[in-house]
Write a structure and sequence with these properties.
The complex is a heterodimer of chains A (165) and B (338). With 165 residues, chain A is an all-alpha fold. Chain A has helices at residues 21-30, 37-65, 70-90, 94-101, 103-106, 109-122, 128-135, 137-161; strands at residues 12-13, 16-17. Chain B is of the alpha/beta class. Helices cover 34% and strands 22% of the residues of chain B. Chain B is globular, with a radius of gyration of 18 Å. The chains are: A mainly alpha (165), B alpha/beta (338). At the A-B interface, strand 1, helix 1, helix 4, helix 5 and helix 6 of A face helix 6 and helix 7 of B. Chain B: Pfam families: SpoVAD. Chain B: This is Stage V sporulation protein AD. Chain B: InterPro entries: SpoVAD (IPR010894), SpoVAD_sf (IPR038369), Thiolase-like (IPR016039).
């Protein structure tokens, strides 16, 4: 590992490598382009925030014009966001947005809808049951599994400490 | 004839008498667009599945190669093909349509030169008068099989590569006009513990370096004897690492041009392909389209093509296995090269 890339001893001679895995991984690491965590966070904040603002606007509109209470509006709001996400996925826009936005488009409910609709579209060629049905939760499945597990433990905490809303 | 450690020297110098290259829309927007025989405007190519679209690419490329050679399918003795899909279905299903005796080969993206080496060996040893090598890849089938659904919104790191949608085929003959296949080096499987499937350039770079150095040593040549040395699909990251390794090995690249098909097939500054192109089709279309055209024009006399393949499967990397890689190299020469 002490060998730097500037040393003169060849790493390869007569068809044999004289290089450890760690040594190579150090060489490879140097050529890996740096990723700006900060820029990614800003983008995620902007896109994720915008999606939430749109959601809030839909909710407000429903309260104002559809004569709903705040609680009643939440269901239809989510449905509308999911619908928009599925349409954008179908037109091949959502994945391009995601490349720029990162977590910003993955974390909101629209990301969940994208993971399901993209899998459904991808596996349509294998039929409705074994294709769409079996693969729709390919990516979303783990969200549901770990979401449920996390909810269980949170509920346990509430139970043990006797917390109430 | 076997020479050196890993090299076949083709004494009868089989000739690539014709080629066929068919690509998708992104490659059609790249800098090499004019060198391909046919460019599709859309990714689905009017087929019902991505897999059928990929197969269509190879069917068209092989059809063109046979047609350009002014031959019929039945004149070709063997078809050597492979691709990236499970059980190499694209090649096998294309072979079903061709009706030519078929050898399926797999070396991931290195299949492009593996198939050419095997086809040349068949012709050189007199076991075939005409043999065809062909391979293909499709961006969406590769995404579907190795990564996520094509429309799934995941952010790809800058080390990731963009699978080329394209197919290339070449007819190798005992006699004729065209670039000659002089020698081929069969690579060893090399693994330096890279586990990230989004950094295949880094996984494959040592395999490319190993095969290129072995090839040149076996033939008792120098890098400067070549007008061009290209790797298959190392892309930006792997290409830079390969150069570092050559420097460290005191292997001089002076007097030659060292490039990578994955960097040549796209305009990596303008097109959103992360580090560059990859896939079986990448080396195949760049070699059979661009490079052979330059050779025929007399711009290049001797070229070394080292196709690179990452031999992972979705299962292997999910189980935490490292990525083994291989590289197969072929030397092409135009007549009367020194």
């Amino acid at each position: 590992m002490a060998t730097s890339t500037k040393s003169k001893s060849p790493l390869w001679k007569d068809g044999q490598w004289n290089m450890s895995d760690q040594q190579y991984q150090q060489i490879a690491k140097k050529r890996e382009p740096a990723r700006s965590v900060f820029a990614n966070c800003v983008r995620a904040f902007l896109v994720g925030g915008t999606i939430c603002v749109i959601g809030q606007a839909i909710s407000q509109a429903l309260v104002k014009w559809a004569d709903m209470t705040k609680e009643e509006a939440s269901g239809p709001t989510i449905c509308i966001l999911i619908f928009i996400s599925v349409v954008l996925t179908s037109f091949g826009v959502y994945d391009k947005l995601a490349q720029w936005a990162g977590a910003g488009s993955a974390v909101p409910v629209t990301g969940f809808a994208n993971s399901m609709s993209s899998a459904a579209m991808e596996h349509r060629s294998e039929g409705l049951v074994l294709g769409v049905g079996a693969n729709m939760f390919k990516l979303a499945g783990s969200v549901i599994v770990f979401g449920t597990v996390a909810a269980f433990f949170v509920a346990l905490v509430y139970l043990i400490f006797g917390l109430k809303h | 004839m076997h020479i050196g450690r890993q090299t076949w020297l083709f004494k009868n110098k089989p000739v690539i008498i014709s080629t066929g290259t068919v690509v998708g829309p992104d490659e059609g927007e790249g800098p090499l667009a004019s060198t391909f025989d046919f460019v599709h405007d859309d990714l689905d190519m009017q087929e019902k599945s991505w897999e059928k679209a990929e197969r269509k690419l190879l069917e068209q490329a092989t059809e063109l190669a046979v047609l350009n050679a002014k031959l019929k399918d039945e004149d070709i003795n063997y078809f050597v093909g492979g691709d990236l899909l499970n059980q190499i279905i694209s090649s096998s299903f294309a072979a079903r349509k061709l009706g030519i005796p078929y050898l399926g080969v797999f070396g991931a993206c290195s299949t492009a030169m593996e198939s050419l080496a095997v086809a040349s060996l068949l012709v050189d040893t007199g076991n075939a008068k005409y043999a065809m090598a062909g391979t293909c890849s499709h961006n969406c089938t590769a995404e579907k099989q190795f990564r996520y659904p094509t429309e799934y919104g995941s952010q790809k790191p800058p080390t990731a590569q963009y699978t080329v949608t394209g197919a290339g085929a070449a007819v190798v003959a005992q006699q004729g006009d065209g670039p000659r296949v002089i020698a081929a080096t069969i690579g060893k499987v090399i693994d330096f513990g890279i586990t990230d499937p989004f950094n295949m350039g880094a996984a494959m770079a040592p395999a490319a370096v190993d095969t290129i150095q072995t090839h040149i040593e076996d033939l008792k040549r120098k890098a400067s004897d070549y007008d061009l040395i290209v790797t298959g699909d190392l892309a930006k990251v792997g290409h830079a690492i390969a150069k570092d390794l050559f420097a460290q090995n005191n292997f001089s690249l002076e007097g030659t041009v060292f490039n990578d098909c994955g960097l040549m097939v796209y305009d990596t500054d303008k097109q959103k392909v992360q580090a560059g192109g990859s896939g079986c089709g990448c080396t195949a279309v760049v070699t059979y389209g661009h490079i052979l055209q330059r050779m025929k024009k007399g711009e290049l006399k001797r070229v070394l093509i080292a196709a690179t393949g990452a031999l992972l499967s979705p299962l292997s990397y999910q189980q935490g296995e490292t990525i083994p890689s291989v590289s197969h190299a072929v030397t092409l020469e135009m007549e009367d090269a020194p």
